[in-house]
Amino acid sequence: MNRVLAATLTVFLCFFVYLLFTTASGAYILWSLDELIAGIILATIIGLVSFKRLVKRDLRMANPLRWILALAYFLGPFLFSMAKANLDVAYRVITGKIKPGIVKISPDLKTDLGITLFANSITLTPGTLSVDVDEETNELYVHWINVKELHPTSQQVAGSFEKWVKRIAE
Predict the structure, then answer these.
(1) Residue 69 phi, psi dihedral angles, 5° rounding
(2) Is the pLDDT of residue 142 over 60?
(3) What pLDDT digit, counting tens, does each position of 48-73 carry?
(4) Long-range contacts of 69-72 (CB under 8 A, 24+ apart)
C-alpha cells in the first residue's frame, strides 16, 4: 500500500472516530463549524503521529479489512464471551464454587499487537486477569477464577479469542 494513501486513510479514520464521539453536539447541524475544524486539526495530528509509529513497525493494521474484522470480533464473540463470563462469575459468587489460581498458557501469537490484544481480551472478561507475559516465549500468566487443569490450553481459558486475534493482528 502506498505510504501517502495509508497516511490519508489513517487521518480519515481518526476524523471519523472524532465525528462519532462528538455527534449531535452542534447548534445547527450535527456538528458546529468550530468542532469540525478542531476535528480536522486533531485527526491530522493524531493520524500522522500514529502513522509514523505504524511505519516504524508494520502497516498490517492499515488494512481496513482488519478493522472490520476487529469490529466483528468485539461485537460478536468477545461480547458473547463477556456476557457468558459475567453469568459464570455471578453463579460462582452466589454458590461459592471457586478454585482460583494462576495458570500459564501458550498462545500461538507472534506479534506484540496480537499478544497485547489477546491479553487485554482476557483481562476484560470477568473471572480472568492477565498477570504477566514472558516476552521471550510469548507465554501468558493468567489469574483464573475456576482452575480446572494445571496446564490448560488457551482455548480452555480464553475460548475463541486466540483464533480471532490471529485473524486481526497477524
Answers:
(1) -60, -40
(2) yes
(3) 777 666 555 556 766 778 888 889 99
(4) 69/164, 69/167, 69/168, 70/168
Pairwise CA distance, residues 13 & 62, whole Å: 10
Phi, psi (5° rounding) for residue 74?
A: -70, -35
Tens-place pLDDT, residues 64-107: 788 888 899 999 999 999 999 999 999 999 999 999 999 999 99
CA–CA separation, 11 vs 40, rounded Å?
Answer: 9
What CA–CA distance (Å, rounded) separates 90 from 77?
Answer: 20
For residue 5, the one-letter residue type is L
Residue 103 burial (CB count, 10 A):
19
61 within 8 A of 113, measured Cβ to Cβ: yes
Could you tell me which of 159, 169, 160 has the C-alpha nearest to residue 138? 169
Q: How far is CA 12 from the centre of its chain?
A: 20
| Calpha distance 116→119 (Å, rounded) | 5
Amino acid at 95: T
